[in-house]
Amino acid sequence: MALLKIENLSATVGGKEILKGIDLEIQPGEVHAIMGPNGSGKSTLSYVLAGRPGYEVTGGSVTYDGKNLLDMAPEERACEGVFLAFQYPVELPGVANTTFLKHALNARRKFLGEAELDALEFVKALRKKAKELNIPDEMLKRPVNVGFSGGEKKRNETLQMAILEPRLAILDETDSGLDIDALKLVSEGVNALRSADRSFLVITHYQRLLDYIVPDKVHVLSAGRIVKTGGKELALELEKTGYAGYEDEAA
Amino acid sequence: MATTDTVERVSALEAEKYRYGFSTDIEMDFAPKGLNEDIVRLISAKKEDPEWLLEWRLKAFALWQDMPEPTWQKPDVPQIDYQDVYYYAAPKKDGPKSLDEVDPKLLETYAKLGIPLKEQEVLAGVEGAPRVAVDAVFDSVSVATTYRKELESHGIVFCSISEAVKTHPELVKKYLGSVVPYSDNKHACLNAAVFTDGSFVYIPKGVKCPMELSTYFRINAQETGQFERTLIIADEGSYVSYLEGCTAPMRDENQLHAAVVELITLDDAEIKYSTVQNWYPGDENGKGGIFNFVTKRGACRGRNSKISWTQVETGSAITWKYPSCILQGDNSVGEFYSVAITNNCQQADTGTKMIHIGKNTRSRIISKGISAGRADQTYRGLVRVLPNASGARNFTQCDSLLIGDKCGAHTIPYIESRNPSAQLEHEATTSRISEDQLFYCLSRGIGEEEAVALIVNGFCKEVMQTLPMEFAVEAQKLIGISLEGSVG
To answer: ipTM score here?
Structure first.
């Protein structure tokens, strides 16, 4: 059974139709990349899947693990194992990174009927993951994303993902604003999380991210529709030809 | 767009019932309703006041009758029918001789209030319990005082003020009303006439109080005004940290609460006074709730002395409260750290006054106001530098956070400087919880109410971290509870 099945999904933002009938199926363990020009609906798709208020689904369906994803509140989706790595991670002044992560993990554990971790257990688990991702302790104590560099923010998203152990991770332009070293670091973090029962939806504008996170499938999104699907070689092709040809196709 | 959406979700959530809305059925010994000279005399007789105190009360009462209500605050204060209030209520039994004699229902009440387990152990007299002395005020008479013996070994006096009147009359007579005179304002004047109990602390020269002193106030009887009076004196070179917290049961009628707190520090002494205020705020339509008209003031009389106020104000229908510092001693320091949360129909007018009299006096004001629902709050502050206060310094920071579009936040800082060497700084911000922040939390599985509590606690962090450990956890939870139901 597919972990994620999107059928004929359309959605509007502020009354404007952005997604115009998306079909997409992701099996457990698969990494899918969505590429497309600016304004094609890439971020909208990620927000719709995460349940962001203001992104209104006007048609179609999304089935996640056999359940109707669109029926769930955003926090419920997260607890069910859907994770969105933000293109622009949000700053939470005064909220320590550790505190935030503990609330997030315990919310999910509670939802799954598992015992909540106490402060000590949590810090132990967090330190282990942080060490694996080369994230310094100091970053855990700082307020969430406040004063973080672009690279630190994205690494912090990866850390959250590692802690929350999602079944479906959506990476929204994780490569944006990263230099090549940061991109490598983040990609390594993501690759370490790849497993047979965890799927990824990698949204990107550029092919270079896919050099590091190698996808099983690549989809081209243009004007709210998936206009082409292929293997990883499709990304390379796009790098040469650009999106120009696909924009015509969608129109 | 984003704002509208937040607002919609705010209103969609159902207002949470006041969590501490319950009452304990202990037989009350009422004085008749209403206020006249006889009632003042009755209270004085019940408290076995000395003659000088009775006279003081009567002078206050005489002045009070013709004194106008303060009108400069922003909240609309309904006309208070002072004749429809009980001025004396006390548990029927005499004060228990030991904790075993404490009414189990009272202990249950503390449990329901969520008083930290360790402090309940203290109340229950459990061996090896942490050393937090609790002078528990249940309505108007202190019924449990713990650790007094250990405090006594340091020469520290921590007892009810009515007891102190008997055991330490010279201290009470010298300092009572010396910081807040009965003529100060209508509410303080009423308190002087009818105060029934409260705490008294004296820390002798050079003594650092070995534990946090803690008092829980709780209104319990219907239509019983609370007129607590607290007096804390830190003698030369001494230090004390004092905690005051309160919750109240659900009531329909408005209840008047007019407390007075006076702090005095002599040379090189320091008092840290922390409050968590959680009186019943009224229901989501503004029905019921406490009128909390409090006069709190500290006098740094000595050189190099320090008074620090920290308050977390989440309760009451109307809060009228300005914990202040009179910086008389040279090099003395005054601090005011405040978190005020108003939700539903709550109104708060709170802030501080820093009066710089001595040379090189310094003050620091950090105020964090959070307004939600249809609530309205005002920070009202005064920094006054008198001509002799050369080298005076003040730093003021007022931040307001709005949740929804029907609430209000106002900042009214008055600055009066009569010394050209004074350095005064004021910073103020007003912001909202952003849709982005909220969604970020939701997308990590954190529910709406928990997310708001997290964000607001982050916003208040600077103030919250000045709270003693005993209080910090409770106060953080309280912030969450206070904002439940009308934010999202």
So the answer is: 0.95
Report pLDDT digits (tens) over B107-155: 555 555 555 444 554 444 444 444 444 444 444 444 344 566 778 889 9
The mean pLDDT value for B380-407 works out to 94
Return d(Cα B168, Cα B228) in angstroms, integer.
18
B416 closest CA partner among B408, B426, B431, B406: B426
Q: Give the amino acid at B301.
A: R
Q: State how far the Cα of B236 lies from the Cα of A2, in Å rounded to an integer.
A: 75
Alpha-carbon dihedral sign for residues B488, B289, B120, B154: positive
- Which of A144, A145, A146, A160 best probes binding to B when mutated, by most B CB atoms within 10 angstroms? A144
Read off the pTM.
Answer: 0.81
Q: With beta carbons under 8 A apart, name residues in chain A contacting B473.
A: none
Contact A179, A135 (CB under 8 A): no
Take residue A12 and report the two structure tokens written for it.
């509007």
Give, in degrees to the nearest 5, the angle at Cα B113 between A106 and B145.
130
Contact B448 A75 (CB under 8 A): yes
A202 CB burial (10 A radius; 0-12, 13-18, 19+): buried
- In this prediction, residue B4 carries a pLDDT of 42
H/E element, B214: strand B213-218
Q: What is the mean pLDDT of residues A82-103?
A: 95
CB atoms B444 and A104 under 8 Å: yes
Q: What is the rounded CA–CA span in Å between residue A25 and residue A11?
A: 18
**What does the pLDDT read at residue B260?**
95
Return the SS3 of B279: coil
DSSP-derived secondary structure letter, B102: S
Calculate the average pLDDT of chain A. Answer: 91
Residue A54 forms contact with B (CB below 8 Å): yes
Of A226-235, B178-187, B188-197, B218-227, the range with the lowest mean pLDDT is: B218-227
Question: Is 80 exceeded by the pLDDT of residue B466?
Answer: yes
DSSP one-letter string for B132-191? -EEEEEETTEEEEE-SHHHHHHTT-EEEEHHHHHHH-HHHHHHHTTSSS-TTS-HHHHHH
